Amino acid sequence: xxxxxxxxxxxxxxxxxxxxxxxxxxxxxxxxxxxxxxxxxxxxxxxxxxxxxxxxxxxxxxxxxxxxxxxxxxxxxxxxxxxxxxxxxxxxxxxxxxxxxxxxxxxxxxxxxxxxxxxxxxxxxxxxxxxxxxxxxxxxxxxxxxxxxxxxxxxxxxxxxxxxxxxxxxxxxxxxxxxxxxxxxxxxxxxxxxxxxxxxxxxxxxxxxxxxxxx
Length: 215
Known about the structure:
Blueprint: E1 3-8, H1 12-23, E2 28-34, H2 37-47, E3 51-54, H3 63-73, E4 78-83, H4 88-97, E5 101-104, H5 109-120, E6 125-126, H6 128-141, H7 155-165, H8 170-177, H9 181-195, H10 200-210
Parallel strand pairs: 1-2, 1-3, 3-4, 4-5, 5-6
């Protein structure tokens, strides 16, 4: 089945551009569009998309508030925020509202498609450039951490977490660490349990807050 996508943006030209990019992918189907946050919530409930590509700046409620409402009404929908805002505060607010991914509007089309696929698989996505900026800001606030492995992770789990923060998929992590994809999944499950998080995006945010990862 194709990945069903709802596009939310108040600019008709951008919505049309996104539609053309996504409709060129054989495994993606654009099922609807919305111009406002309220409309996005209604369309999400009506269409039940797999992924909602969500802008933050909307005419009524913000995309972050719309994300929160959609996740309450449609828990299985993945929200991928697509915005011009690169401030860390927007990223953290979006993740807290339930977003599975966060990318900037200057992203390459192929990266957006990649992010949609990852979010649909439940892996989440934060653009590496944005992760690097967040890390840079965090390093200005906190003293540098040591070179040891942060508790309670093992060395291998720490390596996996660093690659997750770079936006690598399970397959890519396995190839780079010379381990099976199943082993990668087991490590990620263990990371989630130890950090008290439920998905990859939350794990990366935790690592950014603690100053653990290098992107």
